[in-house]
Amino acid sequence: MRSRALAAVLLLTAGLVGCATTEDDAPAVPAGTVRVASYDFPENQILAELYAEGLRRAGLEVAVQHGVGTREVVLPALEQGVVDVVVEYLGTAGEFFRPDADTARRGVDDLHADLAQILAPRGLTVLAAAAAEDQNGFVVLARFAAEQGISRLSDLTALAPDLTFGGPPECADRQHCLVGLRAVYGLEFGAVLSMPSRAATVDTLLAGGIDVGLLETTDPHLTDRSLLLLEDDRGLQPHENVVPIVATDVLRAAGDELAATVDGVSARLTTADLVELNRVVALDGRTPAEAAAQWWEAAG
């Protein structure tokens, strides 16, 4: 695993170097440029652009590297100085660095303090967490919820044996999906279908092929009022607040401006913002950079 991670970091380094030249072969990423890397899914790419634009507005030089890969690639690159800033999710980041961590039913401040403690010896600083968060969510048709008088996951306990659940293939083995639904809520669904994508989950739910589907709580389809996100009333999901992680040496070199700017963006970012940003990209066809620019324009 370590050799694969190292190989991935070396490939990322080569990619950054390759992107750092112009037609005149002059460096396009000069020393002092803050390098922001994103994971390989649209929401994180939007977030990278959002924070990068804030840094540009503060007068810092910024380069964004999109779709770099998974945590197994990006976080080692951050530790080794290949990139400088990664926008993370609080509970998931804590579990990545400490797999045995009990993140569920713990407060944001505790999770933040633990993550900061874990990352400090690695040369990484955890900046302020945003109110915005993106958790696993479980969705039903609003019509079904009204008919059954339900609004919470615990309301499904008696109904589950007669219901069909739809989620990604890995859901069956994940603590924050079917494993946790059984352990925390006692949910034993009559049937479970594997969904190839979140869009397929929505389509199948609307068509009546499943009764309950997994969607992230910032999924743009949740703007559709025919869908209802059930309350996680027993706290199965950990807090997944957006939280930027920055290389400590870069933070020191940039002075107070970098941390103040990033914290300022986090202070304004809401979960509703994330839903809208995802909608603009997924449903309106905008790029992550265009979505971020629209957010900044609306924010004044």
Automatic annotation (TrEMBL):
Matching PROSITE patterns: PROKAR_LIPOPROTEIN
SUPFAM superfamilies in alphabetical order: Periplasmic binding protein-like II (SSF53850)
Positions of the ABC-type glycine betaine transport system substrate-binding domain: 33-297
Superkingdom to which the source organism belongs: Bacteria
Cited InterPro entries: ABC_Gly_betaine_transp_sub-bd
Key words, A-Z: Signal
Residues annotated as signal peptide: 1-19
GO cellular component, one term: ATP-binding cassette (ABC) transporter complex
One GO MF term attached to the UniProt entry: transmembrane transporter activity
Name listed for the protein in its UniProt record: Osmoprotectant transport system substrate-binding protein
Species assigned in the record: Trujillonella endophytica
